Amino acid sequence: METGKRSPVWNYFEELRYKSVRCKLCGTVMKKNMIRHLRIKHPSSFDEMEATRKATTFAGVIKEQNKQSERRCWTKKYCRRAGDMMFACVICGVVLRMPDGLFSNMKRHIKSKHPDVYKSESEIAKKTLLESLTKECY
Ligand SMILES: [Zn+2]
Ligand SMILES: [Zn+2]
């Protein structure tokens, strides 16, 4: 059962001493089964809570996807368009064939030909990711 402090179930209950909680809707005091109480006694609030929880989860997924694309995107900085599906590496000028938006070839190129650049960029990406994660937790 999801009863962590951040769970939307806390919109409907307040914490009392001795690990008891009180339903904000009807005042019933209980020690557990909050979600069950909500579902049985206040079905509309239960639906609302479920919707909130799903929305929160969904937002989390979107955030996660954005993070991943940010991580992939540093390679763009090192690409110069050189024609149809062709991109040139700005460091050494070699031209790579890449479908639009797919920078994995360039990433591979940088990794093998310019390992220092690859290393520092991956570290920045990792650090940024770590920082944003830490921020989200507090
Ligand atoms: Zn109640
Ligand atoms: Zn290069």
TrEMBL record:
Name of the protein this chain belongs to: Uncharacterized protein LOC116412635
Keywords for this protein: Metal-binding, Zinc, Zinc-finger
Pfam family, one: zf-BED
Gene: LOC116412635
Residues covered by the BED-type domain: 4-49
Organism listed in the record: Galleria mellonella
